[in-house]
Each structure stands twice: as C-alpha cells, then as structure tokens.
Design brief:
Order of helices and strands: HHHH
Number of strands: 0
Largest sheet: none
Structural class: mainly alpha
Number of helices: 4
Shape: elongated
Radius of gyration: 14 Å
Distance between the termini: 33 Å
C-alpha cells in the first residue's frame, strides 16, 4: 500500500468519525460521550441514537453501548 493510499484511508476514517460525532451530538450526547462513541467502530450509531430517542439517559446508554 502506498503512502497516498494510506493517507486517503486515514482521511476517510476521520470523515466518518466526524460524521458520527456530529450525529451523536445532535441526538443529545455531550461532546465527550459523543467523541468516545464516535471513535468506537464497534458501537452501532443507529442504536446509540435510538436509545436516547426512546428516553434512555446518556449515562445508561453509555453503559449499554460500551
């Protein structure tokens, strides 16, 4: 893999994390919690958002997701 390929992959990963971060913050997560969840590729974004939409608190949602 070339340096260009690696740079492009890193850029794409960063873009996805920023998109996840924005989505989680808009759903109601505080900045720190959203950053932790956004950086964790194992966390299902739709489930994270859905938990808050259904009335789950951020602390409990973090316990469930992490």
């Amino acid at each position: 893999m070339s340096i260009v390929d690696t740079t492009e992959i890193n850029f794409e990963v960063e873009r996805v994390e920023l998109w996840r971060l924005d989505t989680l913050e808009r759903a109601g997560y505080d900045a720190e919690s959203a950053a932790v969840l956004a950086a964790s590729s194992e966390v299902d974004l739709h489930r994270a958002v859905s938990l808050l939409e259904r009335g789950c608190g951020v602390d409990l949602a973090l316990q469930i997701l992490l």
